[in-house]
Each structure stands twice: as structure tokens, then as C-alpha cells.
């Protein structure tokens, strides 16, 4: 049994990796969001970063790409023994995919006041339409995740003016 502090250190480690992926996405002109999926033993199964612009694909969100890779790696669409780390609270599409994948735990960095569909704007996992009860931890490395997004959007606005 892990202590709360040990669990926090594990969450911090994987969210730090998700932040690195988000930075890579931001450097490539994408909204900086990164995602990591680990299995129950702590083994890295999949990583994803936003790729909508590069792939010309509206579904190429970090979470979706990571879920697809994890499912392929495990040869199973049920990811109930897995944990997804993502820097930004998932949107409705990603929240639906997370529920459909039966992920065991979602850990995210910062709330999304515009499209957050886990706790902020809507609550897809706890809705009557959900057939899976998702465990959620929010706020891991929240300040770092917020700063990264705010800096990226500020730079983007500055380039437009």
C-alpha cells in the first residue's frame, strides 16, 4: 500500500512527462496539451500530444492519441487498470473516449473553464449517460500546467497583433 505522499510523487512524475509532451506540442504550433498512460505496475504504455494542426484531424487530441496507442499496445480497448495523465481537463470528446475506454483513473493538471467536461463545465463521467464510474484527481502540477497554457496563448495573441 502506497502512502499519500508516494502517490503524489508518482502523479507528479507522470504529469511532468505530460508537461514535456505539451511543450513539444506548443513548440510545433499546437495548443500545448500532453497525455501519458501507464498500466497498474507503473509501466509507460502510451504518450500523446495535441496534433490537430499537424495531422489536419479534429480528433487528434493528446488524450485520444494516447488512448489509441495504449489500446493497441494492450490489444484491448478496456483500459480499466490504467491511469491517464493529462495537463488540461479533457473536453467532451475526450471525456467520452475516457469513459468508453473504461480508464481506471484520470489525473489532470488544470481545469478548463471553457470546455472542461470532467468537473468544470460539465461532468460526463458522473452523468446518467455514463456506463463507467471514473476515478478522478485534478490539480496535479496545476500551476505549471496553467502557466504553460497561459504563456502559449499570450505568445499567440502577441504574434497576431
TrEMBL record:
Gene Ontology molecular function: tRNA-specific adenosine-34 deaminase activity; zinc ion binding
Catalytic residues (UniProt): 63
The protein's required cofactors: Zn(2+)
GO BP field: tRNA wobble adenosine to inosine editing
Domain CMP/dCMP-type deaminase: 9-120
Cofactor: binding comment: Binds 1 zinc ion per subunit.
Swiss-Prot/TrEMBL keywords: Hydrolase, Metal-binding, tRNA processing, Zinc
Pfam families documented for this protein: MafB19-deam (PF14437)
Catalyses which reaction(s): adenosine(34) in tRNA + H2O + H(+) = inosine(34) in tRNA + NH4(+)
EC number: 3.5.4.33
Residues annotated to bind Zn(2+): 61, 91, 94
Family (UniProt): Belongs to the cytidine and deoxycytidylate deaminase family. ADAT2 subfamily.
Subunit structure: Homodimer.
Function: Catalyzes the deamination of adenosine to inosine at the wobble position 34 of tRNA(Arg2).
Protein name: tRNA-specific adenosine deaminase
Provenance organism: Komarekiella delphini-convector SJRDD-AB1
Lineage: Bacteria, Bacillati, Cyanobacteriota, Cyanophyceae, Nostocales
Gene field: tadA
Amino acid at each position: 500500500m502506497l502512502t499519500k505522499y508516494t502517490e503524489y510523487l508518482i502523479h507528479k512524475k507522470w504529469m511532468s512527462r505530460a508537461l514535456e509532451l505539451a511543450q513539444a506540442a506548443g513548440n510545433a504550433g499546437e495548443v500545448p496539451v500532453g497525455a501519458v498512460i501507464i498500466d497498474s505496475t507503473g509501466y509507460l504504455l502510451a504518450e500523446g500530444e495535441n496534433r490537430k494542426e499537424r495531422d489536419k484531424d479534429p480528433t487528434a487530441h493528446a488524450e485520444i492519441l494516447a488512448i489509441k496507442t495504449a489500446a493497441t499496445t494492450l490489444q484491448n480497448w478496456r483500459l480499466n487498470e490504467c491511469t491517464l495523465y493529462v495537463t488540461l481537463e479533457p473536453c467532451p470528446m475526450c471525456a467520452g473516449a475516457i469513459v468508453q475506454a473504461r480508464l481506471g483513473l484520470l489525473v489532470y493538471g488544470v481545469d478548463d473553464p471553457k470546455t472542461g467536461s470532467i468537473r468544470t463545465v460539465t461532468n460526463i463521467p458522473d452523468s446518467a449517460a455514463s456506463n463507467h464510474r471514473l476515478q478522478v484527481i485534478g490539480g496535479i502540477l496545476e500551476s505549471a500546467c496553467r502557466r504553460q497554457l497561459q504563456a502559449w496563448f499570450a505568445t499567440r495573441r502577441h504574434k497576431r497583433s
